[in-house]
User: What shape does this take?
Amino acid sequence: MPQPAPERLGLLGGTFDPPHLGHRGAALAVLAQLGLHRVDLLVANDPWQKSGDRAVSPAAVRLEMARALVTDTPGLGVDDREIRRGGPTYTADTLEDIRRESPNTEIFLIVGADTAGRIHSWHRPEVVLALSTLVIVNRTDHAPDIPGVTGVYVQMDPVNVSSTVIRQRVAAGESLDNFTTPEVARIIAQNNLYKAQQ
Ligand code: ATP
Ligand code: MG
Assistant: This one.
């Protein structure tokens, strides 16, 4: 009996505080260019490399916003396993969990160029790189090639948006049109996020 082709799953990990059009653009570009079955946004519970710098919004709100970003977008989804697991989020643990559950799934771990350059500072990076194919997407403010990091490069139409800029815009009372979706903007307003200067 011929075996069915393994599922090709993309994962875009992040804090998503908040999620924005750059995240969606990156996920869609990789979905299309690598012919994946699905790309899930993987919402970190406690992004331990970031959590010292500022108060990260509650995981439940970041999850709600991530779901709002991809709702009605075919091929994109959200994976909440890191939040369900709790504690500091290590991608290596997440990939081991998925591998245990679905041994035949081929995992494509999507990172922006800024994140790719830091991958060796992650917890157990060798496990991350062994269990997934690293996919690096360009980001406007970072060099597109990352010396010393092997991965598949996907060129996307650059989307010059970051969560940091969105938080600053909210604090300054500026519009989020063309930065994120109206649904995400509504959740930000409802929860009074980012009102203090970031
Ligand atoms: P912050 O400004 O708070 O760091 P961010 O916009 O970088 O937020 P993250 O949640 O840190 O968003 O990013 C998750 C992943 O998405 C990272 O791999 C990051 O490189 C990638 N990414 C974020 N914004 C873009 C973008 N505009 N284009 C391509 N990739 C992006
Ligand atoms: Mg970032």
Summary: Residues 34 and 154 are 8 Å apart (CA to CA). The longest strand covers residues 8-14.
